[in-house]
Amino acid sequence: MRIGINLLYLLPGEVGGTETYAAGLLRGLAAVDPANEYVVFVNREASEWPLPAASAFRRFVCEVSGVHRVRRYAFEQFHLPTLADRHRLDLLHSLGYVAPILQRRPSVVTIPDLNFRAFGNRMGTLKQFALPIMVAQSARAAQAVVTLSDFSKREITGGLGVPAGKVFVTPLAPKPVAAEPDLDGMEERSRRFSPYILAFASASPNKNIGRLVEAFQAARKKHALPHKLLVVGHLSQELRTLLSASPDSVIGTGYLKEGSLQLALQRADLMVFPSTYEGFGLPILEAMAAGVPVACSDRASMPETAGDAALYFDPLSVEAMASRIGELALNRSLREQLKEKGARHVQRFSWEKTASATRSVYDRVIAAGDPDKKAPGPRTR
């Protein structure tokens, strides 16, 4: 088969989890599916984004910018179907919520979550009003919808009215450890910050960093914790202002390169993940893979991702969050127990498993269009 992978949304270093998903899925497909050919459609900004070295993967750079969302959507809807025909694709898989609605080729779309329903009023005007329509139409037009958790499957079937048998769950996996990490000064900085608690931030309001800072300060005061709070990731101006109010105890690192991020995570006493909404919550697994105990939200997909290997709290309760932070920061035995549980739990996830489940979706869609091709259907969970 010749399969197209639509990555027109991808802005390297800026789109967060969906970039991790794209890289991991392609790496997994290269490992488990050497027989098929993959044509990867990227925008100008991703023209040098690394693809698997396998000869089965070929890049096609489209003359469109991923930054200009309206132009990208227009290209995706009106030009990408023509490119799919030109490349004689057997199937096109769009990884970023939206797929060509008038696609003539078999289509699969990944919808990681319905975040626009959870906090759409905090998005820009275009995303707030256009994205829900485009996602819903993409889901209806595609032959299959891929998502990342049972929670997101329920959101999609309930919120978009997509039949459950059309939605397939392919959980994610942690990033591999960099062979030659670029530490970017983190070796010295991590020693200076230590001991610290680590959290991940972004401009999205669901990350709940405001309540986390309040809870951390409360726990620090109540228990005389020596820890600092290290907040990693892209920081909005609002977050910068918030963190600057506590310069001695709360540090925003901004975006970290992969090696620096891995080192910062490995040296944390614990990771707190207070998000109110996630389609999967990949940082939970990445902390467990790094041997770091996790305290996390009990909402959305988080219990599904963390299983019995995390300490949970209500993310809307500063008091509950502060209690868990203090409990885990002070209890070395509990931290060791969670490390052991996390190490076992994370073994359930791999990009090869993600790729195999995705490949099964492709087979199912192709077989449905050609009765002569028999393919076993993947679990719909």
Describe this structure in words.
This protein has helices spanning 17-32, 69-78, 80-86, 115-119, 125-141, 150-160, 186-193, 209-223, 237-244, 258-266, 282-289, 302-306, 318-330, 332-345, 351-369, and strands at residues 2-7, 37-42, 57-61, 91-94, 107-110, 144-147, 167-169, 196-200, 228-232, 250-254, 270-273, 294-297, 311-313. The chain is an alpha/beta fold and 381 residues long. The strands form 2 sheets. A 7-stranded parallel sheet has the order 3-2-1-4-5-6-7, with helices on both faces. Helix 1 (17-32) packs across helix 15 (351-369) and helix 8 (209-223) crosses helix 13. Mean pLDDT is 91; it is low at 374-381.
From the spread of the alpha carbons, the general shape counts as elongated
Compute the separation of the termini in Å. 26 Å
Percentage of residues assigned to helices: 40-55%
Enumerate how many helices there are, as a single number.
Answer: 15
- Number of structural domains: 2
Rg, alpha carbons: 21 Å
| Helical/strand content category | alpha/beta
- Give the SSE string: EHEEHHEEHHEHEHEHEHEHEHEHEHHH
For the largest beta sheet, what order do the strands appear in spatially?
Answer: 3-2-1-4-5-6-7
- Find the CATH superfamily of the largest domain: Glycogen Phosphorylase B
